[in-house]
Amino acid sequence: MKILVIGATGLTGTHLLKHLLEEGHEVTAFVRDPVKLSIQHAHLKTVQGEARDAASLSRAIAGQDAVMSAFGPRSLKKDDLQEVFMRNLVSAMTLNGVKRLINLSAMGAGDSYSGAPAIMRWVILPFFLGEMFADKNRGEVHLFSSSIDYTNVRPGRLTNGPARGGVKASLDYTGLKPIMSREDLACFMIAQLGNSQWIRKSPLIGY
Asked: What homologous superfamily is domain 2-206 in, according to CATH?
């Protein structure tokens, strides 16, 4: 498949690139600063662009089979970056006829807030991550109202340890611990390219 990876220089994005290339996909990395991309491969090309630049997103998406976004916030302050990015992404995918999106969200976003761990609802979100999640939630409104075949992945706390497998997914937190490695997250996201179970859903994932 021809796959565009957004957020390719981040911690999760790097794992996405590595495993997609190992599986033989043709990968395009959408990055602000190509110098920060440490991976080189015959099947990897780089497109420079900005999340707020709709034209650069559209150029990168043209001709792709699917998009994988590991785009994350750059600040915990009040912002509209994630909302603007998602609006631009939805528009670009619709314009170019690209239907499949695997999007990285977070546990506690949207309708997963009420079932989130108590420390997240009572401490982390209201005192530390409230503005970031508000921006993320506004962005997801654009996604959910689109016709895109998205899978909106919501992991719990992420670690930098190696993949160990055994990832569990649920829509209501049933049977999973809210923690996992970024490499396992990347592997789960890639597996969704060939899986229709979670299309137009927001699975919570953990161990």
From this structure: NAD(P)-binding Rossmann-like Domain (3.40.50.720)
